């Protein structure tokens, strides 16, 4: 299987609710036969006082109960996902909610219990299978506990702070994976070979329009080294690629096969968090600016979003952002790809939230606190972009607030938005 197909398959499995229940179905087929095979060895007769009629009613109750749990869980989950997507951002549906293992495995337990009780009821005869009935009763008890847990878990999960925190955690992991080196730890590079104006070949995307969601960089470098060519990947991870738009530009004599190159680029209908370091910023910013809309008017949620943006921005500011040129072990240029620079992260963090939220005291004060904190903890090379955003914030605040008292209040850095005025870090 080609790398891009394998990658898309793994992403689909991780974000599909039906996979775990289907595995539960296969597990039931094997376990029900195994339990009946060893039922005669189980010592349940003395602890299971119910007869055939009582066991039948117990199994029927479990079937009705778990079926209700499944219907209620899926029905309420679909409604909750739509409400959360509408209030926060639709981007959280595929990236957060559908990938939650607690929901998937709880539904899997319901399906397994339902099938096990149904199978036990169908096989119930004049004698009570004590082992099977005992396991069915235990599964019914676990299903009740799991259902109560799921209600509490879903109520906590769908809160804005929980969604923002989850996206922040995943964004932190992606940044650490995409940018493994700390700032200043990067090694020396060889001489960069300039590309000619005209490539020897251009490979275009011939399928339906899609988003570049992941790239196998190591395989591309190995392929370029094997064929002694230079590969230029035109779109960046997260970019939209239309039909017949350039995907690769090749420089060299012995050019690699088109299919081999395209197999190393995974495409999808929307951006994902696996290799797209800026997408976590995008999701959190979307949540923040939607909270700042006049229809919702929830600046506290915007402040919660800024909290995670501060965390991610300060973390990525301490990493060595990738060079666009990748060399082989001999120092020869093999792959050219486009990556976000520090300015991209800064603009994505501040620009839209400043535009929509500067007129709110909480947001203006929290943004200033982020900038001042980042200037204190990040390397000197990161500060010019931050100071530029601080200047833009000051100019916008001066335009919005007519009263000097309001302007002074809005220009005060505050780690809580209002109520927690920031204090400078102590040196040493």
Structural overview:
The chain has 428 residues and is α+β, with helices and mostly antiparallel strands. Among the domains are: 3-158, no CATH class; 278-322 and 336-410, no CATH class. The protein is 58% helix and 8% strand. It contains 15 helices and eight strands. Strands 1-5-3-8-7 form a five-stranded mixed β-sheet. The chain has a three-stranded antiparallel β-sheet with strand order 4-2-6. A hairpin with a 5-residue loop joins strand 7 and strand 8. Residues 185-193 have low confidence and may be disordered.
Rg, rounded, reads: 28 Å
Q: How is the main sheet built? A: 5 strands, mixed
Overall mean pLDDT: 85
Spatial ordering of strands, largest sheet = 1-5-3-8-7
Q: Helix count, per DSSP?
A: 15
Instruction: List segments where confidence is low: pLDDT < 50 over at least 5 consecutive residues.
Output: 185-193
Name the beta content range: 5-15%
Succession of helices and strands:
HHHHHHHEEHEEEHEHHEEHHHH
The general outline is flat
Q: Top keywords for this entry?
A:
428 residues; alpha+beta; 15 helices
Topology, element by element:
Layout: H1 3-14, H2 19-37, H3 52-87, H4 91-97, H5 101-122, H6 130-157, H7 160-178, E1 201-205, E2 210-215, H8 217-227, E3 230-233, E4 240-241, E5 245-251, H9 258-262, E6 265-268, H10 279-291, H11 299-317, E7 325-327, E8 333-336, H12 342-357, H13 361-377, H14 383-400, H15 404-410
Helix pairs in contact: 2-5, 3-4, 3-5, 3-6, 5-6, 7-10, 7-11, 10-11, 10-12, 11-12, 11-13, 12-13, 12-14, 13-14
